[in-house]
Amino acid sequence: MSQFVTQMHRTKYRDSVKLALQQKDSRLLKTVTVVPGSGELMKLDDLIGEADYYKKQSRHADTQYVDTPHDGRWIAMPDPIVYADLVDKEDKLASGIDIEGAYVRAGSAAIGRGTDAEIITGIFSTAQTGLKGTILTPFDGNNVVPVNEGGGGNVGLTIKKLNAANEILRANDVDLDEEELWMPITAKQNSDLLGQIETVNKDYGATGAEITNGMVRKLFGFNFAHIELSNPRLKEAAALSLTGGGYRKVPFYPKSGIYGVMWEELFSSIDQLPTKHFSAQVYARRQVAATRSEEGKVGYIECLEA
Description:
Blueprint: H1 7-23, E1 33-36, E2 41-48, E3 70-76, E4 81-87, H2 90-96, H3 102-124, E5 127-129, E6 135-137, E7 144-145, H4 159-171, E8 181-185, H5 187-200, E9 210-212, E10 215-219, E11 222-226, H6 236-240, E12 248-254, E13 258-273, E14 279-292, E15 299-303
Helix pairs in contact: 1-3
């Protein structure tokens, strides 16, 4: 085999994957706040809690000091998300690294799914908090809308449940006038909402609904990201979106409620491997993790999917 892996191939593949990710990246990356990562353990925020006040009751009184609570939000450097395959023909490689090429599509899709899996994990898993990141803070069970919310038994996603989610955020002092709210939903929840909108109000605009191609994009202040949370290609993250009773956990949060931390946005390369009879290795990698920024900003709705 000729030495067909050139810098031109590497550059074309890198640029094609980068462009493909710009056009169609992770389903959930647009819903979170993306920040650069550094180090093995990174401090994201110094959280200043709610402080009390007092009234000055006499002239020349001594200043009194309140005990303002402090907390930290941390995230550990994750293992990278990797896509790699072998190509043994020059013409096959050349056709596969165009913007619509098979290896570009496969690589960008794998990177996108891996990113979604990391975000789902960050939404539901324990968060590292405290002054040194040594405290593990679980998901706040007070921010859960039960499967039977609104009465009438266990049901899927309803407008009453959207209202309950909205109420949780407002009760936690989330500024809904300023925040961009997101809710990842599956095809089943999309169908549930379409039926609700048609039943409650024929004039979709009155509910704030935006619907395109049969997909609910916005309703009652929530933007919807459409993703199949049970996709087995999300690996271990898929199980995190189910309750012990088998109900779907539909998360809701403002964009500021989830950090997506990028240690490496994209690395890609094509190399010839002597140990593989000089086949070309097509390779792409991203290093990203996610975590809740504040417990009061993230909740989920239990939904029946039967």
